[in-house]
Write a structure and sequence with these properties.
mainly alpha, 75% helix, globular
């Protein structure tokens, strides 16, 4: 009997798909407490970028490693952005029920909030997964990337909004959409990261994310 050729492109793609599904399921399980959605999202990005894109490590090992490392800051980001998302939900609820439609300040504030979420949220957990720093410095990096790379930010905002809408209208897609979104976003975000990360000097080992 012939053995399976693990270097076969078809087998490799199937393995990548399996790793992506497994990473998405781990994200779902670790997000069940809700407050841990942030560190789980950072772990998902780290795992997809390292294991699926760069073929380093295993899904379980890298996910658990990143989740543990980013637990504290991840919970803080969850609380901050959870509150902002709740405010955005309240804004849409009031609009739906005809409340505040005549208040220009209310409308302007809601629109600014929505744009802030769409422009920064796609960067939050990838930055958390890659840059080990204080929250204030991490947030500075997030704003710098969001404002400094507008075309990429717009694409990420569209991709993020479409993914969120898909899960909202078809809830069971939460098992696959976050991982798929994360995979697609790495092609945009890693390009931005490379422009903001120090290149290794001659003789230094090249990190996996710069290969």
């Amino acid at each position: 009997m012939k053995s399976i050729d693990l270097d076969n492109p078809v087998v490799s793609k199937l393995q990548d798909a399996g790793d992506l599904v497994f990473a998405g399921l781990m994200w779902f399980v670790f997000s069940i407490p809700v407050i841990t959605t942030g560190p789980a999202s950072a772990a998902l990005y780290y795992t997809v970028a390292k294991v699926v894109r760069h073929k380093r490590g295993t899904v379980k090992g890298e996910f658990l490693h990143s989740f543990k490392d980013n637990l504290g800051h991840g919970i803080v980001y969850t609380l901050i952005y959870g509150a902002l998302i709740a405010l955005a939900g309240l804004f849409f609820y009031n609009l739906k029920n005809g409340k505040g439609t005549g208040n220009s300040g209310f409308i302007a504030g809601g629109v600014i909030l929505i744009f802030f979420l769409l422009f920064t949220l796609p960067y939050v957990f990838p930055v958390l997964s890659r840059f080990d720093d204080r929250i204030g410095n991490q947030f500075h990096i997030i704003i710098l990337m969001a404002v400094g790379h507008i075309p990429t930010t717009l694409l990420l905002a569209i991709l993020f909004g479409a993914s969120a809408a898909a899960v909202y209208f078809i809830p069971y897609l939460v098992l696959v959409v976050p991982a798929l979104y994360t995979f697609l976003s790495t092609f945009l975000i890693e390009r931005v990261f490379r422009k903001h990360m120090k290149k290794p000097s001659d003789g230094e080992d090249v990190p996996w994310y710069l290969e």
